[in-house]
Request: fold
Amino acid sequence: MLDLQRQYEQIRADVLAAVGRVCASQHYILGPEVEALEGEVADFCGAGDAVGCASGTDALWLALAAAGVQPGDQVLTTPFSFFASASAIVRAGARPVFADIDPRTFNLDPAQVECFLRGGQHGKLRALLPVHLYGQCVDMDWLQRLADEFHLSVIEDAAQAIGARLGGERSKARGAGSMGVSAAFSFYPTKNLSAYGEAGLVTTSDPAMAAHMRLLRNHGSSRRYVHEELGWNSRLDAMQAAILRVKLKYVKGWNDARRERAARYDQLFAAAGLASAAGEPAAERTENAAPIQLPSTSAHAHHVFHQYVVRAYRRDELREFLTARKIGTEIYYPIPLHLQPCFVYLGYREGDFPEAERAAKEVLALPMFPELTEEEQRWVVKSIADFYC
Ligand SMILES: Cc1ncc(COP(=O)(O)O)c(C=O)c1O
Reply:
């Protein structure tokens, strides 16, 4: 699925120099490296400021808390994401509510959000938490119009989307992390920009929110042993920040390489006669239909392919076949959030979000990273062809 060793070989000297710099400074928590990283990531994303923290999960919690989400509130998100998109809402004291996804992009469907809002059950709703899944931005213009009308904050879960953009021919492109009141990023080792451990960050252009998050990540304290409110220890360490600063310089090039590899997969699948055209509405799978549906990119989206995810006929058998050939694949995500055992108390049932549930049964992420070779991609597609033939 992912070979980080190849990336390390390219940047080894710079990474070791950065680690050496931190050791020489003997400054390990927050401090100048973290402040420099915050400024550089804010610039990269087109946001006014950024606040480093211990993980993407903490970044979501900080963003929600600083947006004023509190017990009794509801926050609407997608049922098809990593667990933290919903668990952070609970940790902020609120209740997650869900709307179904767009089957083409796998992202929260603004039409479904609109249905929920116009259905009149939004009295306690405080915020929208769209997730830019797999590296593709949600249709933020539509969501923002709804948020303005219903007085909601929009917090982006940009954990998988550093460097992704939205923009039409006439409108200026906007980066993931610059569109909501704040946005949460994860630097988990598998991400497009990844640390050598756990790390996360929130971008925002609201100085008061940034100041509040700096307080919250440090036990709610701006002066030693004085705690203005209840916070947490979610400080980013200098070693991770220094390594991330090295890697940030490469992210644009790495994202471009991911996009090239995605285009190559598309071509290889089409040439093998395995795939229905990208963006075609998913049909009921039959023996005669194309067995693979390619990922679809919305008009005006600059997709950074954190993952290359297809829908596959007989997905689980295909996965076993590929595993036997030592080809790594993953299922992101096999259980939609509304059906997670810990969320039974929310009262959702199977059938409530049919597109999220169908995606959970059909999606398969194929090997995707900037150093993936053409030969390896050909082997993946040839193996999939062998399975269906
Ligand atoms: C969409 C999404 N949100 C949040 C997170 C949480 O990030 P972390 O693992 O850094 O806590 C992740 C990480 O996997 C993610 O993919």
Summary: The CA atoms of residues 258 and 370 lie 5 Å apart. The longest strand covers residues 49-53. The domain at 252-388 is CATH 3.90.1150.10 (Aspartate Aminotransferase, domain 1). Residues 238-271 form the longest helix (34 residues).
